[in-house]
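Renewal narrative, Specific Aim 1. Our central claim is that a sequence can be written position by position from structural information alone. The example that follows is taken directly from our test logs and has not been curated for this report. It begins with the structure tokens describing the chain, in the order in which they were read.
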């Protein structure tokens, strides 16, 4: 196995563009790629541009009529408004998912990067592979949702299963519930989906309750930690470490796929958690360590949400890439000056100066500190442990 990590990148993924004013601004992808380059990480990476996912690959997760609808709508976007009712059932032409020319092609391209990342890791070409343009975890088998057209995360997992992998763990730390991936593998005992997200009572997609634990053939295969709004670094890290490591140890995955939406950040405009870049970096480090501990190092890391597109997303995902490459960046590292100039030139916004928010997060686990039954964070963690841990032979 090569020691280098694989970074999936094709400039054309920046064509995933829902238009001016939409939160999913592709500048976040451009700035991330350029920050990775500015830090001199490219020599530690195997840079790969994979082909788009083909019809048979998309059909591993998505319905044939949905793929046909996406293809048709993206060829004739003007017709979608005229035939809104015909496309609305597919989640297309909505405020969240407006149609744009070439939507099918670029969505399939992003999916192709995640599928190729999974293939490379399973073949042993590299230990780790990153596609920060991916992590589009809301797309359902038959519809678009939440800025997501094709579910590249689910497609990567499905491709691993097609290749013969017997156990895949999917860990999603986006602020929104990873509902599309959970749905795709709801009744498949070969896949363990774990999602830590803001409580569904206060945030889209309003699913991901702790009682959602998988279908009859896969009880315990879905794990959901519903975090109270306002949860900060200490609570977020406590929740992660009180749920994820024990479940991975029990499940024994052969591959870990993780989704690193940066929208848990305190500055993100679309959600209500209060996590910093420093805690996000620590969770990326934890996923890396857990892949080595439980999955022979096989790790596929994806992007996801994140709408503070200059201050947060590029730094969070550059940390992720650097960790995967075995060249982690010091939090106090100065952001390269040339990149800061680029940020201003592209966005007319000032760029951050360092790769940190100036925090040194501290957290305690249940084992060390016990739990407080009056604390909302501890209540959320305990609800998940009580719902799922016994199904894996673990004490709640």
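The sequence written for that structure reads:
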């Amino acid at each position: 196995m090569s020691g280098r990590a694989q970074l999936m990148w094709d400039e054309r993924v920046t064509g995933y563009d829902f238009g001016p004013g939409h939160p999913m601004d592709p500048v976040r992808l451009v700035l991330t790629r350029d920050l990775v380059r500015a830090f001199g990480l490219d020599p530690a990476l195997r840079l790969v541009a994979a082909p788009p996912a083909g019809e048979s690959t998309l059909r591993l997760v998505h319905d044939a009529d949905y793929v046909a609808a996406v293809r048709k709508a993206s060829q004739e976007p003007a017709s979608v408004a005229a035939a809104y009712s015909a496309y609305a059932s597919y989640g297309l032409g909505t405020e969240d998912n407006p149609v744009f020319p070439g939507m099918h092609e670029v969505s399939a391209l992003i999916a192709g990067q995640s599928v190729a990342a999974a293939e490379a890791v399973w073949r042993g070409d590299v230990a780790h592979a990153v596609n920060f343009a991916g992590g589009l975890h809301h797309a359902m088998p038959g519809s678009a949702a939440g800025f997501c057209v094709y579910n590249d995360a689910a497609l990567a997992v499905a491709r691993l299963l097609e290749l013969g992998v017997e156990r895949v763990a999917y860990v999603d730390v986006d602020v929104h519930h990873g509902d599309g991936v959970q749905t795709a593998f709801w009744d498949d005992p070969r896949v363990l989906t774990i999602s830590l997200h803001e409580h569904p009572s206060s945030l889209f997609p309003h699913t991901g309750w702790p009682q959602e634990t998988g279908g009859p053939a896969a009880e315990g295969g879905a794990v959901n930690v519903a975090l109270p709004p306002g949860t900060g670094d200490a609570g977020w890290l406590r929740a992660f470490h009180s749920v994820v490591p024990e479940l991975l140890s029990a499940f024994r995955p052969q591959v870990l796929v993780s989704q690193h939406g940066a929208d848990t950040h305190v500055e993100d405009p679309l959600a209500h958690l209060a996590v910093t870049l420093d805690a996000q970096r620590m969770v990326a480090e934890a996923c890396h360590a857990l892949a080595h501990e439980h999955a022979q190092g096989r790790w596929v890391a994806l992007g996801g949400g994140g709408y503070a597109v200059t201050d947060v997303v590029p730094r969070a995902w550059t940390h992720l890439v650097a960790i995967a490459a075995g060249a982690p960046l010091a939090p106090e590292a100065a952001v390269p000056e040339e990149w800061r100039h680029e940020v201003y030139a592209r966005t007319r916004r000032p760029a951050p100066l360092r790769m940190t928010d100036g925090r040194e997060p501290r957290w305690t686990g249940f084992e060390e500190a016990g739990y407080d039954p009056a604390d909302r964070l501890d209540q959320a963690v305990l609800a998940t442990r009580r719902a799922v841990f016994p199904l894996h032979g673990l004490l709640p």
